[in-house]
From TrEMBL:
GO terms for molecular function: geranial dehydrogenase activity. CDD domains: ALDH_CddD-AldA-like. It comes from Streptomyces jeddahensis. This is Geranial dehydrogenase. It is an enzyme of class 1 (oxidoreductase). Residues 13-480 form the Aldehyde dehydrogenase domain. Its EC number is 1.2.1.86.
Length: 485
């Protein structure tokens, strides 16, 4: 019999009011575990517990917060293998991804924000000389800008990474002295409860960390509209982010939103095509395309269009699709049958819109699991829905261009602006184009990341920035303290 997970509220493991639901392994379609279905009242209880814990936690010495985050990293590292196995079972990630990019990144983020808790929060400002007037005598006014914790933060996390994504919210929020209510994605919440156990074992006081889950939209709504919540940090679709923002607006709650993406990969005729193909190919391999930063929209100079398509087609041919636990598997399943059907419907839509399927487009012949074949669509134009909308699967579309101006125009003709990419042998041109793109980040001849660089989107790809010290700023309010010199 599978153990039934309980909620974590106010330092107690609590039976859910609304029973449990099954968490399904996307690769085997077997039950991984039973996740708790919280009631609206229980979510509000969690926020209330976080509010009660905030007063003391926000005054805790930074060194103590740092020590707890460090010990949490130790706990996760101690259970690394079992946590990676759970992450793989819940999310369908390949073994390398579950270990390195999920649990491994989680450990790194707790370590990073243990150090972050010790970063200075006070910035002295230049003194200002004031003339005598209605506000008082002449004098020199000193000032400090001080970063204060926001309060209670609701962290709503994405299904594509049940370890790194929550850690990237919880760790900096706690480092700054906030308390949190975590509402994990319903598809893979069990890993987040293990993270809560690690924080509990590390000595996080009751109420500082709370975890509530459920499939009902009311669970997420309650985590946003609770009067005890001061800020919402959300990773997910733009449509859901817009609804959350409406509620936050009514309550004047702070927001940090990492939303959808349709990353443009501009490939010039002087690019190293093998390098560009390896970067674009991560769309197929990394989380099976379920990642908002993927270079899913290839904008290639017409003179190298056919060569690039040929290289990409050949690249797909070497990608083994199948059980993520098997050695050599590159592309695992997508998260659910419903999402598989959604991705396949976009491929069919592309056909109807006039795109040509040059690779993939047919469901892999596997006995079980929610698999989508890596798919490449050519003869695309920017008015097609497959080019404009986020598919969130292993599907890449190709649009040709003639000159630099057209490349920039095509890349920026999008509702999204999270991360774009430029491949060119002319580095000066690559940087010139990068500066013109309306995106929160641009990779020049790489899909790699600098984990201290600000991360977030322009346009409908989000609000605010996190990662590195920018995350500490995101989970803080600025206070000005002024005095006469």
């Amino acid at each position: 019999m599978t153990d039934a997970q309980r909620l974590f509220i106010g330092g107690e493991w609590v039976e859910p009011d609304c029973g449990h639901y099954e968490v399904i392994d996307p690769a085997t379609e077997e039950v991984v575990g039973l996740a708790p279905e919280a009631s609206r009242a229980q979510v509000h209880d969690a926020a209330r517990a976080a509010r009660e814990a905030f007063a003391s936690w926000s005054r805790t010495a930074p060194e103590e917060r740092a020590a707890i985050l460090d010990r949490a990293a130790d706990e996760i590292q101690r259970n690394f293998a079992s946590y990676a196995d759970l992450a793989q079972a819940e999310s369908g990630a390949t073994t390398g991804t579950a270990r390195g990019m999920q649990v491994g990144v989680s450990v790194a983020r707790f370590r990073r924000y243990a150090k972050g808790a010790l970063e200075p929060v006070e910035t002295p400002l230049p003194p200002q000389i004031n003339e005598a007037g209605p506000m008082g005598k002449a004098g020199v006014m000193g000032a400090l800008a001080v970063r204060q914790p926001v309060g209670v933060v609701t962290c709503i996390t994405s299904y594509n990474n049940p370890w790194a994504n929550p850690a990237g919210k919880v760790a900096p929020a706690l480092a700054m002295g906030n308390t949190v209510v975590v509402k994990p994605a319903p598809q893979d919440p069990l890993s987040v409860y293990r993270m809560a156990e690690a924080l509990e074992a590390a000595g996080a006081p009751p109420g500082v960390v709370n975890v509530v889950s459920g499939t009902d939209v009311g669970v997420g709504e309650a985590a946003v509209d609770s009067p005890d919540v001061d800020m919402v940090s959300f990773t997910g679709s733009t449509a859901v982010g817009q609804r959350i923002a409406e509620v936050c607006g009514r309550g004047m709650k702070r927001q940090l939103m990492e939303l959808g993406g349709k990353g443009a990969a501009i490939v010039f005729d002087d690019a190293d095509l093998d390098q560009a193909v390896a970067g674009i190919g991560t769309t197929y391999a990394f989380y099976s395309g379920q990642i908002c930063t993927a270079p899913t929209r290839v904008i290639v100079q017409r003179s190298v269009h056919d060569r690039l398509v040929e290289h990409l087609t050949r690249y797909i041919g070497f990608m083994k699709v199948g059980d993520p636990r098997e050695q050599g598997t590159i592309v695992g399943p997508v998260i659910s049958a419903a999402h598989r059907d959604r991705v396949e419907s976009y491929v069919e839509l592309g056909r109807k819109e006039g795109a040509r399927v040059v690779a993939g487009g047919v469901r892999p012949e596997l006995d079980r699991g929610f698999y989508v074949a890596p798919t490449l669509l050519t003869e695309c134009t920017n008015d097609m829905r497959v080019v404009r909308e986020e598919i969130f699967g292993p599907v890449v579309v190709v649009v040709p261009f003639d000159d630099e101006e057209e490349a920039v125009a095509l890349a920026d003709d999008s509702d999204y602006g999270l991360i774009d990419y430029v491949w060119s042998g002319d580095v000066a041109r690559a940087f010139r184009v990068a500066r013109r793109l309306r995106a929160g980040g641009v990779g020049v001849n790489t899909v790699g990341r600098n984990m201290e660089a600000p991360f977030g989107g322009f346009k409908k790809s989000g609000v605010g920035r996190d990662v590195g010290s920018y995350a500490l700023h995101a989970y803080s309010e600025l206070q000005a303290i002024v005095w006469p010199g």
